Amino acid sequence: MARSFYDEMYMANGECRSHYRDFTRWLAETPQDLLAQRRREADLLFHRAGITFTLYGDDQGTERLIPFDIIPRSIPASEWAVVERGCIQRVQALNMFLTDLYHDQRIIKAGVIPAEQVLANDCYQLAMQGLDLHRNTYAHIAGVDLVRDGDGSYYVLEDNLRTPSGVSYMLEDRKMMMRLFPELFAAQRVAPIDHYPSLLLDTLRASSPLDNPTVVVLTPGRFNSAYFEHAFLAREMGVELVEGADLYVRDDKLFMRTTSGPKQVDVIYRRLDDAFLDPLAFNPDSMLGVPGLLSTYRSGNVVLANAIGTGVADDKSIYPYVDEMIRFYLTEEPILKNVPTWQCRKPADLSHVLANLSELVVKETQGSGGYGMLVGPAASKAEIEAFRARLIAKPHAYIAQPTLCLSTCPTFVEQGIAPRHIDLRPFVLSGRETRLVPGGLTRVALREGSLVVNSSQGGGTKDTWVVED
Amino acid sequence: MSRYLERAENLARMLDVSYSLSLMPQDGSKHGLDELAMPLLITGTLDEYLEKYGQMHAERMLTFFALDPQNPASIYCCLQAARTNAHAVRGRITADMWENINSTWLEIRGISEQGLGRYGISHFCEWVKQRSHLFRGATFGTIMRGEPYRFIRLGTFIERADNTLRLLDARYELLGEDIDEIDGRPARSYYQWTALLRALSSFEAFAEIYRGSPNSRRVSELLLLRPELPRSLRACVDELNLMLSGLPGDNGRPAQRLAAELLARLQYTVIDEVLEEGLHTWLTDFIQVVRELGQTIQASYLEVA
Question: Which residue windows are coiled coil (chain B) (predicted)?
């Protein structure tokens, strides 16, 4: 089947897109051995700085380097402006949806979203019902995953409203590029992103009604795959990095233990899933959380960013309704498109999916990290059959989407430079206002033809440039 | 010797800041030439450069500043001078220190042959900093706590105090008073101050102490008056006092008195007072005092027979 991919650098006729011209000229003029030397240097520097991640289910080598590609993904400023507006619109609607959902449920009453889709969802937290949050913000930090289809238009693949990660790679990739290839930045105007940590801190402080709240970053600990990022953000913001054991609740207030005595904590940027936050309220086996945290939270004595129960809005079974949410709450037309989605819980959709398994992508509604999904065109017959059985057994746990022709970007691979599929994750911050830094994290699937960009599945990253047209 | 090494490190820090800032999107279309001229301006070598080359040219300015053997203020010449001086006092310093300083010199000759563009500017700055760290570590870990040690430390801190003052002054001249707090937009001043802090390895300290965006008031307070930051003026003067009071004999009275006076001025002032006086005036005054202190130390100990 001949499929046409949208390439970020070249047009269909092989001509270079204008915003990439400076770069390709530079690439052609730079000697190969110099590039190779710089790529080795990048590896060394990432290793030295300890910018690594851990792969679960891998006994040997707990620390891995995330492959970094030196060819940047470049977005013209005019195009970015649309993406930016689209992301802001989407996250605003999602926050309004969460506020509504945990209060009046107007959207359900209006019949826009079926009640069972929301209320029977595992991620719907009864504990949040009726609780008023400052500024009505639930998802303070959101990562919107975008891809481009064959015609180049942007689609939202998913909204990550729980604890989206990867922002440290966005920042470190830029630092690395500026270090290795400063001449590129001297020749072209690339919008800066380094102020992200300061925006993040600003957002976290704005999430509390207090004037000068004490902010901490809560990490599950150094065995977590994104531990580097937790430590990195805490240091860049100048706030404490804490684990559950460093915190305790007394008199319905949250304190952290410090050498000079207890200190009250007002805002937690938590990088821990809902289920682990408080063993008294959620998973009783969790050693990672803080007993009594939920009660403190409900009393309004501490802010969690993101709030508990945001997972219900980024669930893949809710995803098909986001367009409707935007129309319902903002009375605007969605700027970014949703990927058409079949909900396997609907019998008609299910039979369509079963008949076309080899062409579709099927995902678990609550899966993430590229685990537990089927990419039809890339799967073997046996894999498809095995998946079919699981699908029939639990249809409500799956959705299916057409296989998108993810856009490609030239990338260094063993055989030289070749196109590889990429996506884009901008990070949207909601505080006093909703905003983002220009760009985001570009992930690239390094295996030829692969459409899965997750780092746990062998994906790499690229620096992302927003350049003046 | 230690002054020259510290100076080389500071020059590298200066270069690093200006270079990374020159890569930011600029207001004009001069491709950050002004920013690149900054290190030359701070070290007072811009005129010499212009005399020699006539025009501002990015690559040439960088090489002139970093590797030109004819420019006495270049990093190359600093390392050369450090090595020459170390050679002269070879008997009083340890083998570890000597070998370190000598191999630094040998390596920079190699880099100079290779050319800066090929080696990479950031890489180069990093290298100079590392060599300086290494020398300091070797000194701290191997030399007897006698007079040579004290003089080495004195040289380091005189140089460092001077550098912190000059860097702050230059950045402040460029930015002036803060017009208003930036509201999260990537304002130029945010990046300027951040770059300065990073160059002085003080960004993390700043974030921890102030938890907010850098502005001239906070940055000045940190870099001038905070004793816990190892590159602040206050910390340098603390160290100078400690070293001077440990030196035996009466010759050093004038230097000791000057250093103690300097410390007292820093201890009992607050940043608002400094800003009221005008940061630039204050800094110029202190650059002068620190230079005087350096000269007095020289006169008291090294020139009397």
Answer: none
